[in-house]
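Handout, section B. The chain below has 202 residues.
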Amino acid sequence: MGTRYEDQPAEHWAGADSLDPTPVWKQYILIALLLFGGLIVVLVVSLLAILPQIVTPPALVAGDRLVLPIADLPGANQQPKRIEPTPGDTLRAFYLARPSAAEAFGFRARWAPNVGAAECAVDTGVTATGSAFEYGYVATCVGSMFTFNARGDSKDGSHRGLDQYLVSRSDDRVIVNLSRVIQSSERTSGPVPTGIPQPQQP
């Protein structure tokens, strides 16, 4: 024989307020707060994305993006320009270079023969090629001199190239992303000597 609700003692009965659902106006407020918070997040992310395009160069904006005036970009095959993101910031200094009209590079002014090894300073140099010349780079580490061409590659293929920052440009500005270093790959072997017969592939 079952027990009916009416048979329960009065102290076991649930109050009338316990059966009331959450007021609708509270649900509306919660939804509105969530939508407002999402909108704020979208606005902040959008602002950070377009910030390099709206600030007046030179400026270092959020995300370690350095915005420079287009006038700081050297002409094609002109001497690279050494730039420090902030005065005295030699660890992140780089050379803004333009080997050709279609290219723009940001080579770090410090380099190591192996990734993770002690770094040494990088200087610019000039190499004559017949009646023309090309700007390149020189690093002297642990008593040895390492040379690089205008695009930061090893001249003789015996060592890895220069590390660099990502560079983008528009009509009136150059943006250098300092937050990520593009590291040149390690060399696993030296250059193949010329004039020595190589084994034939079967």
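Note. The longest strand covers residues 120-129. Compare this with the example in section A.
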